Amino acid sequence: MKERNHIVITRRIPQAGMDVLEASDARVTVVQTDEEKGLSHQEIVAAIESADVLLCQLTEPIGPEVLSANDRLLGIAQMAVGFDNVDVAAATERGIPVSNTPGVLTDTTADLTWALLLAVARRIPEAHEYMVAGRYALWGPNLLHGYDVSPGGSGRRKVLGIVGYGRIGQAVARRAVGFDMEVLAHDPFNRDGIEADEIATWADLPELLSRSDFVSLHPALTDETHHLIGEEELRAMKPTACLVNVSRGPVIDEEALVRALSEGWIGGAALDVYEDEPAMKPGLAECPNAVLVPHVGSATRDTRGRMASMAATNALAHLERRRAPNCVNPGVYDTEAYRRRVGG
Which whole number is the average pLDDT over 1-13? Predict the structure, then answer.
């Protein structure tokens, strides 16, 4: 019987993860080493066909057709917290454990949330472009007015509304203390936690949107949160309010957001994720009140290195028929489908 010892990595991962794999006896193949080039559907199928374990990224759709390409696959190790790209139900039905890399990027993503919030509030990208274009000739009292985050000149505490109060949402709230902000939070799955929280106050979504000076989105992507923020919600916000999204792109109706920014329904928006990523809806790039970055929520050397090493550790556990430390479908280990797969 052929030895099952082959880990296939769809795209090059940070060296910290490679170090974990190279210290093992596993045979490792990296399919794509070009940082800016993804894999086609055919390449994903070919990768999984040759793998005993697949280490993949959020950008690769792993659906039933792909999963059915290899009846000897021992597991899927995703290098991300989210796993929307993997059909976990189909994997479980086939006896395939799926793992992710939770927890490690909470603070890093909260930091980026605040970087975006401050950038859109104080118009930092516009100010940078103004400077490098050589337009700065004289200080002026009306130059590039933005919005205060702390009480500032008005003396009024600004309101930060956080939608989704999991680990990242809570980390964002903790950082608001230093800016003396009032924090409202909405999360239908964590109302008790919000009401017991010493920083945030529970609010339903309409109240949060109408009262907040800044709205930060951190929900999981589900059928219920798809287009959670659409035209009605954007029109309910203050005309000076700024919207920040570092969660999932489809949480916002991006076409409605373009109209909101262009027509002045809200003051600005800062996005790390997009509805049809990597594409943007027409008109978004032309909005001067939008701060746009390319899905860099976890992009620090320390955090991406830790994610890579976690994914590699999970991959080795799959390969060795052990329970992966971060399995998202742990019930699979008790199924006959899994027992047949690992014993075959």
Answer: 88
Average pLDDT over residues 5-25: 96
- CA dist 288 and 293 (Å) reads 14
Phi-psi region for residue 5, left (φ > 0), alpha (ψ -120 to 50) or beta? Answer: alpha
Q: 207 and 336 share a domain?
A: no
Q: How far apart (Å, rounded) are the C-alpha atoms in residues 158 and 149? A: 6
Question: DSSP 3-state helix, strand, coil percentages of the chain (rounded to 5)?
Answer: 40, 15, 45
CB-based contacts of 232: which residues, under 8 Å, 6+ apart? Answer: none
Per the structure, the count of domains in the chain is 2
pLDDT in tens, 262-281: 999 999 999 999 999 999 99
**Same domain flag for 232 and 326:** no
> What tokens does 317 get?
């556990």
Enter the pTM of the model. Answer: 0.90
Catalytic machinery residues: 248, 277, 295
